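## tool: complex_structure
## caller: assistant
## args:
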Amino acid sequence: MAVHAQPSEHSTHTSTGLSNAKLGMWAFLGSECLLFGALISTFLLYRGKSLSGPTPKDVYDIPYTSVSSFVLLMSSLTMVLALAAIQRGDHPKLRVSLMATALLGMTFISGQVYEFTRFVQEGLSVRTNLFGTSFFVLTGFHGAHVTGGIIMLLSLFGMSLDGRLPTEKAEAVELVGLYWHFVDVVWIVIFTVVYLIPTGK
Amino acid sequence: MRFQRPTATTGWWSWATTVDHKRIGIMYGVTAIVFFVVGGSEALLMRLQLARPNGRILTAEAYNQLFTMHGLTMIFLVVMPLGAAFFNYMLPLLIGARDVAFPRLNAFSYWVFLFGGLFLYSSFLLGGAPSGGWFGYAPLSEQPSSHMIFYSLGLLVLGISSTVAAINFAVTIINLRAPGMSLMRMPVFVWMTLVVSFLLIFALPVLTIGLFELFFDLRFGTHFFDPNFGADPVLWQHLFWLFGHPEVYVLILPAMGIVSEVLPVFSRKPLFGYPVVVFSGIAIGFMGWGVWAHHMFAVGLGPVANSAFALSTMFIAVPTGVKIFNWMATLWGGDIRFKTPLLFSLGFIAMFIIGGLSGVTHAIVPSDYQQTDTYYIVAHFHYVLFGGAIFGLFSGIYYWWPKITGRMLSETIGKWHFWVMLIGFNVTFGPFHILGLQGMPRRIYQYAPNLGLNFWNMVSTIGSFMIALSLLIFFYNVVHTFRRGAVAGEDPWDGRTLEWSIPSPPPHYNFEELPVVHSVDDFWHRKYAEGEGGRLVPVVAGGSEADREVSTGDHGGGGHSIHMPSPSYFPLVAALGLPILCYGLIYSTILVIDGAVTLLVGLYGWAVEPSAE
Amino acid sequence: MTARSKAWLAVTAATGLTFLLSACGSSRPQDSLSPQGPEARKIDVLFKPVFWIAVGVFVLVEGLLVYALVRFRHKPGREVPAQVHGNRRLEIGWTILPTLLLAGIAVPTIGTIFSLAGKPAGNVLEVTVTGHQWWWQVEYPGLGVVTANEVHIPAGRPVYITLSSKDVIHSFWVPRLAGTQDLVPNRTNHLTIQADEPGVYLGQCKEFCGISHANMRFRVIAQTEDDFQAWARQQIQLPAPPGAEALAVMQQVGCGGCHTIGGVEGFGGIIGPDLTHFGGRTTFAGGMLENNEANLTEWFRDPQHVKPGNDMKIAPGGLPGPSGLSDDQIRALIVYLESLQ
Amino acid sequence: METVTDKDELAAHPGPKQYVLVALVLAVATAMEVGWYYLDVPHGLFVALLMFLAVLKFSLVALWFMHLRFDNSIFKRLFVTGLLLAMAVYLIVLTIFGALKWPLLVGFTAFLVVFLPIFLIVRARGRQAGPG
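## result:
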């Protein structure tokens, strides 16, 4: 979406004085709520309904996941700093923050890849049981969203290097930022509802 | 990568690369009508099969594919895109805008819709069309014999198209209204478009996840709906109907909007209780979220859930009834001219009342235990979606045709079309009520001769061919008047809304100067002033031109200096990626990569290309 | 013109109604409007009044519409009408009126929902029905009886049916005795049926369940208490073993792999219906066909042709298609099967 | 609804300092979550606390990093509509399935009961005014 919703399509005088692209992005995020909601509810519905193991308790590594959650959380900070930078017209700092955000995102993703492979080694795949099915598809779907965000961040970085991301186009960064933060808040919910609560004492 | 922008203004390429909302609207309309013919032919085949007991015209497998594709076609490839056609063409004209908020995104959603439809239909050549019903209940949908993989991917693609379009329309309405057009000065059709857009934005993701899970079950062996692994197949039903019920209002609200535009024009009275009609539309949109489980009364949700959903279902009838009463009050005391558009709107009201009332009878859960999954239900939703949506959309076609083509359709042929269609419709679907109550289940490719169902089935089949005839009459009307039809002029119906203030067909920049809006039905008030007691006083000749205001600081001068978004290849390229991707997901990884690359190239080119040169 | 159309509409409606009401059970064995038992009657007494209210509203509203169209149609020289923009009081009126009407209907509705959901009291017969693509397995846990596609019940006694499914979602519907209940895998639903009088009540699967959904039929056979008990007793007797010829054919076809025949060596299959008392049934093939020699002959020639998609693939090598059985072999089979009383 | 140009918005936006501050709170909240996880608290309380922290983190990111606190309220309305709609319908679905253990149920419903009325009022006011 953010890729579609270019500032170039931002009408200068609109009825509300707000940017089309930003309105569109928020509508899209509202719609995303129901998307992830459905996957999370599927996970909750099938909680403890698996006919065979492994169960969450068997495979989760909470300290590990906590760290990667923290990493994603911090990427939101660098993201918002990137926006602040371009709005101030500070392009070197913009590039640094964009790259930092992308790197943090990549750390999170590689962490997830490692987690998945470990789960598979411990005998949990999408086909094993309802837990495997609902867990992998939910978190994988989120991972795909993060990956999409990383691609957008990198292309913003590239555009900025070519000087095709002037200060007037700050909105492009803001839109990608909105998407990125949304993916982050979804993970906040997943971390609580999918990781901590099911296995908590 | 910056290659030459498309420059053609006529011919195939100009259509393939257009970002003009009017051209995209026309493409939506034409495509939808073509699919209407296809879906209709499927229906005729089914009626032939059911004309007599133990029909032998179709095999069971063929029949099941046909009724599945008939449902999918009529909902996703006919009624929704016909609505989208009017949204595209009319929305900017009605709110006094020059285009939609995201012109290229608009082209993208059309191409995705077209490719999605073709992808779905390609299944006929690739091992058989889906045969698990448009509702695709698990676990039947997961049996290989149901071919539901094309269903899951096809609807995912169509969902992308609709979501993108819905966001586009919502933003357009919120942001691109002419100066002075506050929300409560918008035409009702625009209001209904807004409600529909939000319904789609919030309802489609639910279906998307359902389809996503179904696809993973089919392709990657997950177990979302697999009872053998402890899954509960009812989950699919909740996801499906959580989308499916708002979808019903997505299908009917555009027609309601059209009717609300047509009635005032042809009774020469303002819409009775504009705020109430608007609010009831919004109310329907909201309440539409609280009734989905009335599709599942027989599943065994328990008496408490069934009672709750019975209540919510009954009370959604209230705002619907309010609309109908307001429409009748609009006609009341009017100066009613029975032009074809009005006839179709009246047909809508008359038929929709029947559909609504039968709807109430199966909100009564116990009687739904008898009626669910019988032809009584089939009757109900055809009275709502054909007698309702299709009649309403035809009303729109006859009403706006002069604006779109610059020529009038023939009134005489149009009236023939209406009467044959109305009678054919009732002869076809009226008997369904009786058949259902007398024990004919849905989705059966044959029925026993000893059930006493033979007579009304034969009647219904005859009726279905009358409907087909009425469509032929319509096509004759189109062909007959396309060159020879009377020239319409700007305002053939003495209309009330902004689109009638500009030439027919409109110039590609729509409005030379953006109008300034002072009230609902602004254009009408430029032509007529209201004396005391609401008596109308025509404004002095030429006055309508004289006192037209111009929003200051806007481009003028015959539209030459008006800057419109330029055509682009990239929406088409990006859209092309999706079906390739889907075939890949079924057949080969190479195609997946191919599709993904096409998509990304399209999006990238799109991103770096400015919307206008 | 419009007026005539609406008049015509009213006519169709009227004819429709007369047909609805003239509907009598005998000529329409699946008619939901002629209840033959208390459960179905509970629904009927709720539906018919609502139906007539709906008809009343229909006549009223369409009548008003027609009247408005006739009275206010355009006449030459008619001056432009008064521009009425709305009327708050009227609008509140026609919001509240339907609300009250619906509220009135809601009360008995909810009452009936709960009374249908409850387990019946008194001398209840318990039956378990399991849906298969595309036939019904019927068990009487209390009586040790297992049969298929025909539910024998004692007339005048409430029968509490437990519903579940082996494969996909089916739906159990005997219109004249009760409403629908779905059979959902991994779930058990319950439905009470009761017949006033002995007789045969046709039913059919209502939820689309695959290629032969249309052929998934069954019947409820209500008997007097004594006849029912006699039937049940007879169902637990073992029939005479097959003759050599019939046995040879059945072994060649491999019937035992899918079907159970009580007391016969190697016939313990559970994929298809239990055939132990096949001869005593009035129908076969999921209630699709009358149990007679002609139908059985056609069936054994090529089951797939008669009932598309069914599991009975008896062409050589267990494939679908013509079975290739000779007329003599088929006759032997039929003679034996009909002997299984 | 008042018309806000992008300039005004920018002026209203907080600077890096506030952002870092928010991030600190987020970090502490996450630390607390993991802490509670290892401390021995009754499950009901545990769930309630986690729900609370999740809501807190969610709102901080949404209100500050996504600027909902400073931007035009129409954005908030778009997003909150989706959020509450999702919570409402999925909650009902899970309740029908009987799949919600009571602490989750309590947590969610509390959340709805607190936020839904506010949201509805905001909407109603928005309706009367309407953008433009």
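## assistant note: The longest strand of chain C covers residues 125-132. Helices of chain C lie at 2-22, 38-71, 88-117, 225-235, 244-253, 293-301, 303-306, 327-339. Handing back to user.
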